[in-house]
Amino acid sequence: MSNLKILVGCKRVIDFAVKIRVNTAKKAVETANIKHSLNPFDEIAVEEALRLREKLGDKVVKEIVALTCGPPKAQEQLRTALAMGADKAIHVEVGKDDNDVANILQPLAVAKLFKAIVEKEQANLVILGKQSIDDDASQTGQMLAGLLNWPQATFASKVEINNDKITVTREVDGGLETISSTLPAVVTTDLRLNEPRFATLPNIMKAKKKPLVKFTPDQLSVDITPRLETISVVEPPARQGGTKVESVDELISKLKEAGAL
């Protein structure tokens, strides 16, 4: 297939190295003054789009578009994708800060926003991370495929494109499964698909000059009203220390006392 336009999801999440804590309202995790970064699975998605262009050539992959839905600061993650090599970025601005987004944006709303952008940009391949590391929902890619009525290949560990056919090796509980379909399609990436490249300083500087287009949900005629309400968020109970026993008999006695035997 020629004139392949790839749309890649780029979600802003709390950095994986940050130890999260519940906010004072007990409704979500604390996001204020916390380091954020590009979702690791989405970073893999950006890398795969770039590798497909390097393999197929510029005449086949015409454009790679990075897309995010989030607060104004989400532009930071789009600039990361642009510095890696994406050609253009689209920002659907939602909420004033990260806390707003956590309360507003749910997978179905994101899928609807992505659908609107796919149709506007006339993209014919969407690559998303299989899940985000904040809510771990793993739903947006599947919902988007359903809304677009496109074939989907989730948890991809290998992606190949030949003309208008895409072949994906995906990870399943029993091992590996290989599926193929015609384009357009939606693909979600797994950890073992690739290792993302680092953005070099010259590319970071070039990224500042690449186009970044903004939209709002209203401009896209998409209703993002939350359908689910978070009642309460609590930290898991602290783990209790273990005890040492001197013999097997004592171990059996302890297990009986705990009701395990």
UniProtKB/TrEMBL annotation:
Record GO terms (molecular function): electron transfer activity
GO cellular component: mitochondrial matrix
Keywords: Electron transport, Mitochondrion, Transport
Keyword Ubl conjugation applies: no
Cofactors, names only: FAD; AMP
Highest taxon, organism lineage: Eukaryota
Biological process, per Gene Ontology: amino acid catabolic process; fatty acid beta-oxidation using acyl-CoA dehydrogenase
Domain Electron transfer flavoprotein alpha/beta-subunit N-terminal: 26-224
Gene3D superfamilies: HUPs
InterPro entries per the UniProt record, alphabetical: ET-Flavoprotein_bsu_CS, ETF_a/b_N, ETF_b, ETF_beta_N, Rossmann-like_a/b/a_fold
One of the Pfam families matching this protein, by short name: ETF
TM annotation in the entry: none
Cell compartment(s), UniProt: Mitochondrion matrix
Job of this protein: The electron transfer flavoprotein serves as a specific electron acceptor for several dehydrogenases, including five acyl-CoA dehydrogenases, glutaryl-CoA and sarcosine dehydrogenase. It transfers the electrons to the main mitochondrial respiratory chain via ETF-ubiquinone oxidoreductase (ETF dehydrogenase).
Subunit annotation: Heterodimer of an alpha and a beta subunit.
Family: Belongs to the ETF beta-subunit/FixA family.
PANTHER family: ELECTRON TRANSFER FLAVOPROTEIN BETA-SUBUNIT, ELECTRON TRANSFER FLAVOPROTEIN SUBUNIT BETA
UniProt name for this protein: Probable electron transfer flavoprotein subunit beta
Lineage of the species this protein comes from: Eukaryota, Fungi, Fungi incertae sedis, Mucoromycota, Glomeromycotina
